[in-house]
UniProtKB/TrEMBL annotation:
This is Receptor. It comes from Kushneria marisflavi. Residues 1-23 form the signal peptide. Belongs to the UPF0065 (bug) family. SUPFAM superfamilies: Periplasmic binding protein-like II (SSF53850). CDD domains: PBP2_Bug_TTT. Keywords: Receptor, Signal. InterPro entries: BUG (IPR005064), Bug_dom1 (IPR042100).
Length: 324
């Protein structure tokens, strides 16, 4: 009887030891995050996405607790494709996340060979929605979207439209508006929003399309004719939407966070829960507002559906207006 009891104790001890080893080796059971979380940013330091990552990162640390540490790693290049690819190919254990920009990230899968697609990620949370605008300089003769479109209709292709680049939200805004108005703009891409804005202010182009946040601080120099969103922005409450003016066009920049596809469920849930909690963080709201950004938390499956819809828009525009 004693031998049987002793044998049972030994078997129980071995079982407990095995469970302990499994818990340590499997991040789904460990106290996540037990290691620093690296957030890959596919853009240069100091840009809008980089600043967003650093601001959100410090609040994410607090929500995760457990002495969480969020470290930003910039990997710019190849039109931001390098960063998105690095995230897609990283180990799905919660130690590597990445910023994710829509529609740009999905547009890159159509105009070149990409090592990722819409199914390569676990969608954690969109954080910011920055709607596009149609703008002219304060010296422009156009005081309404109707006047601008009328000029384009009279001489299709004569109205120069400044864009930050091809294959992104600026480009797509111009294409969608031209289609809705049944006209054509002369699209002129630049190397970034600041250069496009400089050309516009210098009188080298008649109009431009850029994210609303990129007009903040330039109110005395820029005239915003329309916001391409479902409703007016609190940052420009007197500016009507394109929809209000008869053109059913919405487009903007969505910026959020993803992880490599296949996160352990407990890790994914922990991250999504932490991001959801940011929606009520007044300090974060204030910091984003100072940058001209609106907090727009969209998590999990809803975020994935947003990515799929933006991928669909990019695909259709690529098929009708290939930009390379």
């Amino acid at each position: 009887m004693f031998k049987t009891f002793r044998k049972t104790l030994i078997i129980s001890a071995i079982a407990l030891s095995t469970q302990a080893v499994t818990a340590v080796g499997n991040p789904a059971f460990a106290d996540y995050p037990e290691k620093p979380i690296e957030v890959i940013v596919g853009y240069s330091a100091g840009g809008g996405t980089d600043v967003l990552a650093r601001v959100v990162g410090k609040y994410l640390e607090k929500e995760l607790g457990n002495d969480a540490s969020v470290v930003i790693k910039n990997q710019p290049g190849a039109g931001d494709q390098i960063g998105f690819t690095s995230v897609a190919k990283a180990k799905a254990n919660g130690t590597t996340l990445g910023t994710f920009n829509l529609p740009a990230a999905m547009a890159l899968t159509y105009d070149r060979k990409a090592a990722y697609d819409v199914n390569s990620f676990d969608y954690l949370a969109n954080v910011v929605h920055d709607p596009n605008t149609l703008v002219v300089s304060q010296d422009s003769p156009y005081h309404s979207l109707k006047e601008l479109i009328q000029a384009a209709k009279e001489k299709p292709g004569s109205v120069g439209m400044a864009l930050a680049s091809l294959g992104g939200n600026d480009h797509f805004s111009a294409l969608l508006l031209a289609a809705a108005a049944d006209t054509e703009f002369n699209l002129i891409p630049f190397s970034g929003a600041s250069m496009a804005r400089t050309a516009l202010l210098g009188g080298h182009v008649a109009a431009g399309t850029m994210a609303l946040s990129q007009t903040i601080g330039f109110e005395d120099e820029l005239r915003v004719l329309a916001v391409l969103d479902d409703k007016r922005s609190s940052f420009a409450p007197d500016v009507p939407t394109a929809k209000e003016q008869g053109y059913d066009v919405t487009m903007g920049s969505y910026r959020g966070f993803v992880a490599p596809h296949g996160l352990p469920e407990k890790v994914r849930t922990r991250l999504v829960t932490a991001f959801k909690a940011l929606a009520d963080n007044e300090n974060l709201l204030d910091e984003l507002a100072a940058q001209g950004n609106t907090l727009d938390i969209i998590t999990g499956e809803d975020y994935r559906q947003l990515s799929e819809s933006q991928a669909d828009v990019a695909k259709k525009l690529w098929e009708s207006h290939p930009w390379k």
